[in-house]
């Protein structure tokens, strides 16, 4: 093992990873595979790290960079992300810098000088910059601890986020064969993984693959009734004062939703490609830097946003696939604290997505694959079982238990009833009306409503007219959605979304296929009172002591002020979890404060006295 960088060594001792984790980052223990990865890389090994968002990838290269001789070079595609990471490291007393196009010539020269002087622990470099002859020759002269390639899936041409400049990164292995390389990504699929290994020269190196479960995220999918009202209720009852992201498909809906939330007193800002770049940047900055801002956005928003304290992600429209749903909801709760993934969806969403696929210019294969993906997502939305085990199952991961205890279906299991007769009525209604009508009309016929259309087509004369009066419209919609999810019925976008029977519908009509249907959900099935403690009831694990709300508020106010003064995002100063830890423990001494996760040596030195003063003032 090479000589460690002296800065982090106890006098006379080689520093061990755990003591640096504690002194610099203020953390008491490694999480999951971190320890093994840190050891492997510190000893000079290459590897691939697959960990979900929020899993703690950064420490996997930051610690070895501190423990090894020389500077760790981090390749990262996103400038905003580099900036925030470096700000956080500087706060923790690590000598970190960036080298990218935002620097002036003089600033860049200064960074280069510090690198050569051995004055840097970590240097974040944009890929296109790294590959310039100037930079490669600079690195050739410097002492390099390791190369970390973050967002490594960007090398994959098949992936969803291909970046041509990443292809050139294969040069690293060729030019610096003896420097360890660690590639990191949160994208799990096999094909992408293989491509990373080939392109970055990692064959033979171990892969560290973590579970993709995000246990702190509570999944909840509700039936869409009055979406804006449902969203407002969700936010005000469960996430008042929290930061969150609301996803909508269209720009107009983004604007309307942001306005409706603002009117309801929820600080919400729009974000979509049609807004002026400066407005977009300002809204994004406010979301990142201020506490409790809700951003309403099209899916373009979120990539490269590292904000750890996003407490909820809400979908007002159906995403394209489970991959997209997982990625978008994954932006909640990076800090590991309880967070919600909430989605309101209805039959029209399925029809709309289906139409988008059919009308797209993609090949037939593309359309077939897209439809398959949409079907899988609809099945997730309609399942009566655990959402989490469905999600993990989709990614090829076996859930540890069939009930996670932290999704709507586990917390309040839907009633299942025999739906064979209802399904038969619905399917034969679609059949007898010629498979030419949408949900609304079929329901009119079933409940025996004499609308103009019903009489016009003589559907009141059919045997199915009025045979479904035992269920109301809402129930029938739920039946239709589930039959679509089960694949017995599909909406044909080329025929005005007429509902058509599929091959498998025959078995249902003949009574050969059993059909269990979930009772229509009343909409907001999880009601959480937030009057006692702000998050107490959302907490999946019991906390030792409930955090004290006034002290929590005082700490947040203090943090906002510091963040403003230092011009960094609030979470760079201290994470929510650290503030909550302080509010719960009420430390009275610097020693006691140092025990709170997130308070390392430098933070104690900078903020210790002020934090104790805030705690004391709250006690007075
Ligand atoms: P990723 O890059 O995998 O999305 P990060 O490296 O940003 O995740 O880490 C996510 C969050 O988890 C951060 O808030 C970080 O401080 C926290 N974290 C990481 N490792 C640990 C640990 N061992 N103990 C406590 N918190 C941790
Ligand atoms: Zn569950």
From TrEMBL:
SMART domains named among the record's database cross-references: DEXDc, HELICc, HRDC, RQC
Domain of life: Bacteria
Helicase C-terminal domain ranges (all copies): 230-377
EC nos: 5.6.2.4
GO cellular component terms given for this protein: bacterial nucleoid; cytoplasm; replisome
PANTHER family: ATP-DEPENDENT DNA HELICASE Q1, DNA HELICASE RECQ FAMILY MEMBER
Protein name as annotated: DNA helicase RecQ
Organism annotation: Bradyrhizobium retamae
């Amino acid at each position: 093992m090479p000589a460690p960088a002296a800065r982090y060594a106890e006098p006379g001792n080689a520093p061990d990873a755990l003591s640096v984790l504690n002194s610099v980052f203020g953390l008491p223990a490694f999480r999951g595979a971190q320890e093994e990865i840190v050891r492997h890389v510190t000893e000079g090994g290459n590897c691939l790290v697959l960990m979900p968002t929020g899993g703690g990838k950064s420490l996997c290269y930051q610690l070895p960079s501190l423990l090894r001789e020389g500077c760790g070079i981090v390749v990262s595609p996103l400038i905003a992300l580099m900036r925030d990471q470096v700000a956080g490291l500087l706060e923790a007393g690590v000598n970190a810098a960036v080298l990218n196009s935002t620097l002036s010539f003089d600033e860049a020269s200064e960074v280069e000088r510090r690198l050569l002087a051995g004055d840097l622990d970590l240097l974040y470099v944009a890929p296109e910059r790294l590959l310039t002859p100037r930079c490669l020759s600079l690195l050739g002269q410097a002492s390099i601890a390791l190369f970390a390639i973050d967002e490594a899936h960007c090398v994959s041409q098949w992936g969803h986020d291909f970046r041509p400049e990443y292809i050139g990164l294969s040069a690293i292995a060729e030019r610096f064969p003896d420097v360890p390389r660690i590639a990191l990504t949160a994208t799990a699929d096999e094909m992408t993984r293989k491509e990373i290994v080939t392109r970055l020269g990692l064959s033979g190196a171990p892969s560290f693959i973590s579970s993709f479960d995000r246990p702190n995220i509570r999944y909840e999918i509700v039936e869409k009734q009055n979406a804006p009202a449902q969203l407002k209720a969700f936010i005000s009852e469960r996430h008042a004062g929290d930061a969150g992201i609301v996803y909508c498909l269209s720009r107009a809906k983004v604007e309307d939703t942001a306005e409706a939330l603002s009117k309801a007193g929820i600080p919400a800002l729009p974000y979509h490609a049609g807004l002026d770049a400066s407005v977009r940047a300002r809204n994004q900055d406010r979301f990142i830097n201020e506490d409790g801002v809700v951003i309403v956005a099209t899916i373009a928003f979120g990539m490269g946003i590292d904000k750890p304290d996003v407490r909820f992600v809400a979908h007002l429209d159906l995403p394209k696939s489970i991959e997209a749903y997982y990625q978008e909801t994954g932006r909640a709760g990076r800090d590991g604290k309880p967070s919600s993934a909430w989605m309101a969806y209805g039959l029209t969403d399925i029809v709309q997505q289906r139409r988008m696929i059919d009308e797209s210019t993609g090949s037939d294969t593309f359309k077939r694959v897209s439809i398959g993906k949409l079907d899988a997502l609809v099945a997730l939305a309609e399942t009566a079982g655990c959402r989490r085990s469905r999600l993990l199952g989709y990614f090829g991961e076996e859930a540890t238990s069939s009930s996670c205890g932290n999704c709507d279906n586990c917390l309040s299991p839907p009633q299942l009833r025999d739906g064979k007769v209802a399904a038969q009525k619905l399917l034969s209604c679609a059949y007898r009306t010629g498979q030419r009508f949408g949900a609304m009309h079929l329901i009119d016929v079933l409940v025996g409503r004499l609308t103009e259309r019903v009489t016009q087509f003589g559907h009141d004369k059919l045997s199915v007219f009025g045979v479904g009066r035992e269920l109301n419209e809402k129930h029938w919609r739920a039946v239709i959605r589930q039959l679509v999810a089960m694949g017995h019925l599909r909406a044909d976008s080329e025929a005005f979304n007429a509902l058509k029977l599929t091959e498998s519908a025959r078995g249902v009509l003949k009574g050969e296929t059993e059909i269990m249907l979930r009772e229509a959900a009343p909409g907001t099935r999880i009601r959480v009172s937030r009057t006692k403690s702000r998050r107490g009831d959302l907490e999946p694990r019991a906390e030792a002591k409930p955090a004290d709300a006034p002290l929590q508020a005082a700490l947040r106010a203090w943090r906002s002020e510091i963040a403003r003064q230092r011009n960094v995002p609030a979470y760079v100063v201290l994470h929510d979890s650290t503030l909550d830890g302080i509010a719960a423990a009420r430390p009275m001494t610097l020693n006691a404060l140092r025990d709170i996760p997130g308070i390392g040596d430098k933070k104690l030195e900078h903020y210790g006295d002020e934090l104790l003063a805030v705690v004391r003032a709250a006690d007075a």
